[in-house]
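Good morning C.,

I know you're traveling, so I'll keep this short. The sequence:
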Amino acid sequence: YADRLHQEAHEPRLLLRACQLLAEKEKWPEVASRIPFLEHVGTAETLRLAAGAAWNTHDPGLCLRVVERSHAAFPGGQLPADLRGIRVECLTRLGRISEAAEEATAVARSENSTASIEHLVRVLLQKLDTRGAVVEARRLVDRPDLRAESALNIASLLHAGDRGLGKALWRHAVGSGIKDVAVPMALQVGFAL
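The tokens, ready to paste straight into the viewer:
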């Protein structure tokens, strides 16, 4: 219906609003079918919508193409951290792990957020770069916003590579309070250390 209105009235705002409503209702295939229109509009908002539609329809190739064509819509031609993170995930899902690791490293360096460092650690582990993952995970130990479950998860993955790091992450998790559901993992990691 919105497509017909757009064609008859030549009013792109109608189709854009329809895409936004479809996204709110999580009707991602319908939004994805309008990605060319969203890219043509070319604003940061419409490009985020297009990338979200491609991501939520489980098409990492399309999502990556949308993200990589979106630079011009953002200040200085630089993608924001969230879209760079989506780019990393797309590259990972496409099996381009080395490129994903390079981008995740760049994001973690520029953002220096706990989330970006955690993401980098996970990508490095997928790349089978345990040493690199250990080095980056050390940056997480004293961060107050590192969630207990994340600390336990990373400790369980890296304790064999660096026992001291595993212990520090385990202490962080236990010291910051773990949820009941995470107690078995905490015990398992604790016994492994």
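Safe travels,
E.
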